[in-house]
Amino acid sequence: MTSPSGRVRQSTDSDGVSVIELCDAEGRNSLSEAMVHELTRALESVGTDTRAKVCILRGLDDVFCSGGHKDMLLELARGQIAASDIMLTRAVIEVPIPTIAAMQGHAVGGGLVLGLACDMVLMGKESRYGCSFMNMGFTPGMGTTRLIAAALGEHRAAEMMFGGQFFRGSHFAAGTGVNYVLPRAEVWPKAMSVARRIAEKPRNALLILKRSLSLGKRLAFEEARTVETLMHEICFARPETAKLIEENFAEAARNDK
Questions:
Q1: How far is the C-alpha of 100 from the C-alpha of 54, rounded, in Å?
Q2: Regarding beta strands 8-12 and 17-22, do their DSSP bridges make them parallel or antiparallel, or are they unpaired?
Q3: In Å, what is the CA distance from 35 to each residue of 29, 46, 89, 149, 167?
Q4: By C-alpha distance, which of 154, 148, 153 is closest to 112?
Q5: Is 106 among the catalytic positions?
Q6: How far is Cα 164 from Cα 108, in angstroms, rounded to an integer?
Q7: Domain for residue 167, yes or no?
């Protein structure tokens, strides 16, 4: 299945391995309103596919997901949409089968937490990962404040969220909950290897175990969403936030050249 725009592709093979691909090269896999909608639909489709036993979420070779699209962030800052309405992280957590994030490329902000919401995580050694929310004048969202700490460690997560800096994947090779940190070219083959081993198991048993193991993450997300909504109401009420968003994207564009 390919979304009408071609930004999201989803397929399930004969072994029960389902793959969701973010493939918006032009938009650097940013989370625009359309991308969020299409990705959520793909996740829901996997959840209702009785053939699927495990799902891999992957992006482009050089970028997994670059986080919130500029237009969406400005709409948040102007109060045109509410941060609490963006439920993409919950959609990942609620996929009823095991999920694997094959993050061989860069992952930023909401794009990083999108991957960390999966049950298993693979990163690329040479790729960059970070939380840039504070660089734009507002606090983290999408469940970041709880999920990133659970995945990467409380103190490391605090440095990333407060400082807004980026780290190479090699930084997370030890002392975190990441399953594998590999050279970028090895991430996808390893993700498929892990998925095929899981797909050998009975689907009904996988569903039961997933429901049990995901409980802590579900609770953490709901707790984070409650606190993050309050923080966002305060941050987005400040007029300088929109200006900082514009400046951050302008600087990112210069650095990409």
A1: 8
A2: antiparallel
A3: 8, 17, 13, 26, 25
A4: 148
A5: no
A6: 10
A7: yes
The single-letter code of the amino acid at 18 is S
Average pLDDT over residues 11-40: 96
φ, ψ (nearest 5 deg) of residue 119: -75, -30
Q: How many CA within 13 A on the CB side of residue 247? A: 10
21 falls within a domain: yes
Q: Is the pTM of this model over 0.85?
A: yes
Reported as a single tens digit per residue, the pLDDT across 217-239 is: 999 999 999 999 999 999 988 98
Owning domain of residue 67: 8-184
121 assigned to some structural domain: yes
209 by DSSP, 3-state: which? helix
216: three-class secondary structure by DSSP: helix
**Beta-bridge partners for 223:** none
Handedness of CA 23, 24, 30, 35 (dihedral sign): negative
Is position 192 within any domain? no
From the candidates 69, 106, 171, 232, give the one annotated as an active-site residue: 232
β-partners of residue 123 are 103, 181
